Amino acid sequence: MSSRFRGLDAANPNPNAESDPSDSGVRRTIIDLGDGSEVLYIPRFLPSERAWAWFHYLDKEIPWTRPVIHVFGRHCLQPRDTCYIASKGLTDLKYSGYQPHAYTWDEYPILKEILQAVHEAIPGSTFNSLLLNRYKCGSDYVAWHSDDEKLYGPTPEIASVSFGCEREFLLKKKPVKEEGIWIVDQLPKKRLKTSYQEQQSFMLKHGSLMVMRGYTQRDWNHSVPKRAKAVSVRINLTFRQIV
Question: Which pTM does this prediction carry?
Fold first, then answer.
Protein backbone atom coordinates (compact mmCIF):
# COMPACT_ATOMS: atom_id res chain seq x y z
CA MET A 1 0.00 0.00 0.00
CA SER A 2 1.36 3.44 -0.86
CA SER A 3 3.11 5.31 1.94
CA ARG A 4 2.58 8.79 0.52
CA PHE A 5 -0.25 11.22 1.23
CA ARG A 6 -3.29 10.87 -0.98
CA GLY A 7 -6.09 13.32 -1.62
CA LEU A 8 -9.65 12.18 -1.11
CA ASP A 9 -12.06 13.11 -3.85
CA ALA A 10 -14.47 11.41 -6.20
CA ALA A 11 -11.66 10.36 -8.54
CA ASN A 12 -9.39 9.02 -5.79
CA PRO A 13 -11.43 7.31 -3.07
CA ASN A 14 -9.84 6.15 0.16
CA PRO A 15 -9.59 2.33 0.32
CA ASN A 16 -10.83 2.50 3.92
CA ALA A 17 -13.85 4.60 2.95
CA GLU A 18 -17.37 3.49 2.26
CA SER A 19 -20.12 5.27 0.42
CA ASP A 20 -23.10 6.42 2.48
CA PRO A 21 -25.58 8.26 0.26
CA SER A 22 -28.18 10.20 2.19
CA ASP A 23 -31.91 10.18 1.51
CA SER A 24 -31.44 13.37 -0.53
CA GLY A 25 -28.93 11.68 -2.81
CA VAL A 26 -25.99 13.74 -1.54
CA ARG A 27 -22.81 11.70 -1.73
CA ARG A 28 -21.17 11.01 1.63
CA THR A 29 -17.92 9.23 2.29
CA ILE A 30 -17.09 7.70 5.67
CA ILE A 31 -13.42 7.04 6.42
CA ASP A 32 -12.72 4.58 9.24
CA LEU A 33 -9.40 5.66 10.78
CA GLY A 34 -9.43 2.73 13.20
CA ASP A 35 -9.70 2.48 17.00
CA GLY A 36 -12.94 4.44 17.13
CA SER A 37 -11.82 7.40 14.99
CA GLU A 38 -13.87 8.37 11.94
CA VAL A 39 -14.20 11.10 9.33
CA LEU A 40 -17.33 11.93 7.33
CA TYR A 41 -16.88 13.94 4.13
CA ILE A 42 -19.64 15.49 1.99
CA PRO A 43 -17.99 17.25 -1.00
CA ARG A 44 -21.21 18.92 -2.22
CA PHE A 45 -22.79 19.81 1.09
CA LEU A 46 -23.98 23.23 -0.16
CA PRO A 47 -25.16 24.25 -3.64
CA SER A 48 -22.43 26.26 -5.35
CA GLU A 49 -24.47 29.46 -5.79
CA ARG A 50 -25.53 29.54 -2.13
CA ALA A 51 -22.01 28.71 -0.97
CA TRP A 52 -20.58 31.64 -2.96
CA ALA A 53 -23.23 34.02 -1.60
CA TRP A 54 -22.37 32.98 1.95
CA PHE A 55 -18.64 33.22 1.19
CA HIS A 56 -18.95 36.86 0.11
CA TYR A 57 -21.04 37.71 3.16
CA LEU A 58 -18.54 36.08 5.53
CA ASP A 59 -15.57 37.72 3.84
CA LYS A 60 -17.04 41.22 4.14
CA GLU A 61 -19.28 41.21 7.23
CA ILE A 62 -17.51 39.07 9.84
CA PRO A 63 -15.34 41.11 12.29
CA TRP A 64 -12.11 39.32 11.45
CA THR A 65 -9.03 39.76 13.61
CA ARG A 66 -5.47 38.41 13.39
CA PRO A 67 -4.40 38.03 17.03
CA VAL A 68 -1.01 37.71 18.67
CA ILE A 69 -0.60 34.20 20.11
CA HIS A 70 2.04 32.51 22.28
CA VAL A 71 3.64 29.46 20.66
CA PHE A 72 6.82 27.57 21.64
CA GLY A 73 7.86 30.24 24.12
CA ARG A 74 7.45 33.25 21.86
CA HIS A 75 4.76 35.65 20.71
CA CYS A 76 3.80 35.77 17.05
CA LEU A 77 0.99 36.90 14.78
CA GLN A 78 -1.47 34.09 14.11
CA PRO A 79 -1.07 33.08 10.43
CA ARG A 80 -4.78 33.47 9.61
CA ASP A 81 -7.75 35.68 10.52
CA THR A 82 -10.26 34.46 13.06
CA CYS A 83 -13.62 35.12 14.74
CA TYR A 84 -15.49 33.27 17.48
CA ILE A 85 -19.24 32.71 17.96
CA ALA A 86 -20.73 31.03 21.03
CA SER A 87 -24.03 30.53 22.81
CA LYS A 88 -24.40 32.45 26.07
CA GLY A 89 -23.18 30.90 29.31
CA LEU A 90 -20.49 28.67 27.81
CA THR A 91 -16.95 28.26 29.13
CA ASP A 92 -14.59 30.81 27.57
CA LEU A 93 -12.40 29.58 24.71
CA LYS A 94 -8.65 29.99 25.22
CA TYR A 95 -5.81 28.78 23.02
CA SER A 96 -2.12 29.67 22.70
CA GLY A 97 -2.48 32.40 25.30
CA TYR A 98 -5.34 34.08 23.43
CA GLN A 99 -8.97 34.42 24.51
CA PRO A 100 -11.20 35.57 21.63
CA HIS A 101 -14.25 37.71 22.19
CA ALA A 102 -17.41 35.59 21.87
CA TYR A 103 -19.96 37.09 19.47
CA THR A 104 -23.54 35.79 19.57
CA TRP A 105 -25.44 33.87 16.91
CA ASP A 106 -28.09 36.60 16.77
CA GLU A 107 -25.50 39.14 15.61
CA TYR A 108 -24.88 37.12 12.43
CA PRO A 109 -28.12 35.37 11.36
CA ILE A 110 -26.51 33.71 8.32
CA LEU A 111 -24.29 31.72 10.69
CA LYS A 112 -27.48 30.39 12.30
CA GLU A 113 -28.66 29.29 8.83
CA ILE A 114 -25.39 27.45 8.21
CA LEU A 115 -25.60 25.88 11.69
CA GLN A 116 -29.12 24.64 10.93
CA ALA A 117 -27.93 23.10 7.65
CA VAL A 118 -25.11 21.32 9.51
CA HIS A 119 -27.50 20.00 12.15
CA GLU A 120 -29.80 18.66 9.44
CA ALA A 121 -26.86 16.90 7.74
CA ILE A 122 -25.63 15.34 10.99
CA PRO A 123 -28.61 13.89 12.89
CA GLY A 124 -28.25 14.21 16.65
CA SER A 125 -25.62 16.95 16.54
CA THR A 126 -25.98 19.92 18.91
CA PHE A 127 -23.20 22.41 18.17
CA ASN A 128 -23.14 25.54 20.34
CA SER A 129 -19.91 27.28 19.31
CA LEU A 130 -18.18 28.23 16.08
CA LEU A 131 -14.60 29.16 15.26
CA LEU A 132 -14.18 30.89 11.90
CA ASN A 133 -10.83 31.08 10.10
CA ARG A 134 -9.93 33.06 6.98
CA TYR A 135 -6.86 32.17 4.93
CA LYS A 136 -6.03 35.09 2.64
CA CYS A 137 -3.38 33.26 0.63
CA GLY A 138 -1.21 30.17 0.55
CA SER A 139 1.12 31.44 3.27
CA ASP A 140 -1.74 31.41 5.80
CA TYR A 141 -1.96 28.07 7.56
CA VAL A 142 -2.76 26.00 10.66
CA ALA A 143 0.08 24.06 12.27
CA TRP A 144 -0.23 20.47 13.51
CA HIS A 145 -2.57 20.22 16.52
CA SER A 146 -5.63 18.45 17.86
CA ASP A 147 -8.78 19.94 19.37
CA ASP A 148 -8.66 17.79 22.50
CA GLU A 149 -9.40 20.49 25.09
CA LYS A 150 -11.46 19.29 28.06
CA LEU A 151 -14.28 21.73 27.33
CA TYR A 152 -15.17 19.63 24.23
CA GLY A 153 -15.48 16.35 26.15
CA PRO A 154 -13.69 12.99 25.57
CA THR A 155 -15.03 12.32 22.07
CA PRO A 156 -15.71 15.70 20.44
CA GLU A 157 -17.52 15.91 17.12
CA ILE A 158 -16.17 18.77 14.99
CA ALA A 159 -17.90 19.80 11.77
CA SER A 160 -15.92 21.84 9.25
CA VAL A 161 -17.55 23.77 6.37
CA SER A 162 -15.25 25.21 3.69
CA PHE A 163 -15.79 28.16 1.35
CA GLY A 164 -13.66 29.57 -1.45
CA CYS A 165 -10.19 28.33 -2.37
CA GLU A 166 -9.65 24.57 -2.08
CA ARG A 167 -7.01 23.75 0.52
CA GLU A 168 -5.36 20.53 1.59
CA PHE A 169 -6.28 19.21 5.04
CA LEU A 170 -3.89 16.68 6.60
CA LEU A 171 -4.37 14.12 9.35
CA LYS A 172 -1.45 12.41 11.08
CA LYS A 173 -1.59 9.67 13.72
CA LYS A 174 -0.21 10.73 17.08
CA PRO A 175 2.80 8.83 18.50
CA VAL A 176 1.89 5.90 20.73
CA LYS A 177 3.30 5.65 24.25
CA GLU A 178 4.09 2.13 25.46
CA GLU A 179 5.70 1.46 28.86
CA GLY A 180 7.10 4.99 29.09
CA ILE A 181 8.58 5.00 25.57
CA TRP A 182 7.16 7.07 22.73
CA ILE A 183 6.77 4.90 19.60
CA VAL A 184 6.88 7.40 16.72
CA ASP A 185 7.09 4.95 13.84
CA GLN A 186 6.82 1.19 14.25
CA LEU A 187 7.88 0.49 10.67
CA PRO A 188 11.44 -0.73 9.85
CA LYS A 189 14.03 2.07 10.11
CA LYS A 190 14.85 1.90 6.39
CA ARG A 191 11.33 3.13 5.59
CA LEU A 192 11.39 6.87 6.21
CA LYS A 193 7.77 7.57 5.30
CA THR A 194 4.81 6.82 7.51
CA SER A 195 2.31 4.20 6.36
CA TYR A 196 -0.83 5.30 4.50
CA GLN A 197 -3.02 4.22 7.41
CA GLU A 198 -1.19 6.69 9.69
CA GLN A 199 -1.50 9.73 7.41
CA GLN A 200 -4.46 11.04 5.45
CA SER A 201 -4.94 13.95 3.06
CA PHE A 202 -8.19 15.66 2.01
CA MET A 203 -8.66 18.38 -0.59
CA LEU A 204 -11.53 20.32 0.97
CA LYS A 205 -13.76 21.73 -1.74
CA HIS A 206 -15.82 24.92 -1.81
CA GLY A 207 -19.16 24.17 -0.13
CA SER A 208 -17.99 20.90 1.42
CA LEU A 209 -18.56 19.51 4.92
CA MET A 210 -16.09 17.37 6.83
CA VAL A 211 -16.79 15.90 10.27
CA MET A 212 -14.18 14.46 12.63
CA ARG A 213 -15.69 12.29 15.33
CA GLY A 214 -15.08 9.49 17.80
CA TYR A 215 -11.50 9.48 19.11
CA THR A 216 -10.06 11.48 16.20
CA GLN A 217 -8.94 14.36 18.45
CA ARG A 218 -7.40 11.97 20.98
CA ASP A 219 -5.45 9.90 18.46
CA TRP A 220 -4.80 12.20 15.48
CA ASN A 221 -3.31 15.63 14.76
CA HIS A 222 -4.45 17.76 11.82
CA SER A 223 -3.18 20.77 9.89
CA VAL A 224 -3.75 23.04 6.89
CA PRO A 225 -0.23 23.52 5.48
CA LYS A 226 1.19 26.41 3.46
CA ARG A 227 0.64 26.02 -0.27
CA ALA A 228 2.12 28.44 -2.81
CA LYS A 229 -0.56 27.59 -5.38
CA ALA A 230 -3.39 28.68 -3.05
CA VAL A 231 -3.67 32.26 -4.31
CA SER A 232 -7.22 33.16 -3.25
CA VAL A 233 -9.20 33.38 -0.01
CA ARG A 234 -10.46 30.35 1.87
CA ILE A 235 -12.94 30.64 4.76
CA ASN A 236 -13.49 27.71 7.10
CA LEU A 237 -16.18 27.31 9.77
CA THR A 238 -15.59 24.74 12.52
CA PHE A 239 -18.63 23.94 14.63
CA ARG A 240 -18.06 22.42 18.07
CA GLN A 241 -20.04 21.54 21.18
CA ILE A 242 -18.77 22.86 24.51
CA VAL A 243 -19.98 20.53 27.27
Answer: 0.84
Q: In which region does residue 144 sit, left (phi positive, over 0), alpha (psi from -120 to 50) or beta (all else)?
A: beta
Rounded Cα distance, 81 and 134, in Å: 5
3-state SS, 77-100, equals ECCCEEEEEECCCCCCCCECCECC
- pLDDT by residue for the chain (243 residues), tens only, comes to 333 333 444 333 454 566 554 445 679 999 999 999 999 999 999 999 999 999 999 999 999 999 999 988 899 999 999 999 999 999 999 999 999 999 999 999 999 999 999 999 999 999 999 999 999 999 999 999 999 999 999 999 999 999 999 999 999 999 986 555 444 444 443 433 444 568 999 999 999 999 999 999 999 999 999 999 999 999 999 999 999
Q: Please state the residue numbers annotated as binding site for 2-oxoglutarate.
A: 133, 135, 145, 222, 234, 238, 240
Query: Domains in the chain, please, with CATH?
Result: 17-240 (2.60.120.590)
**Would you list which residues are annotated within the binding site?**
72-74, 133, 135, 145, 148, 222, 234, 238, 240
**Number of other CB atoms surrounding residue 64 within 10 Å:** 17
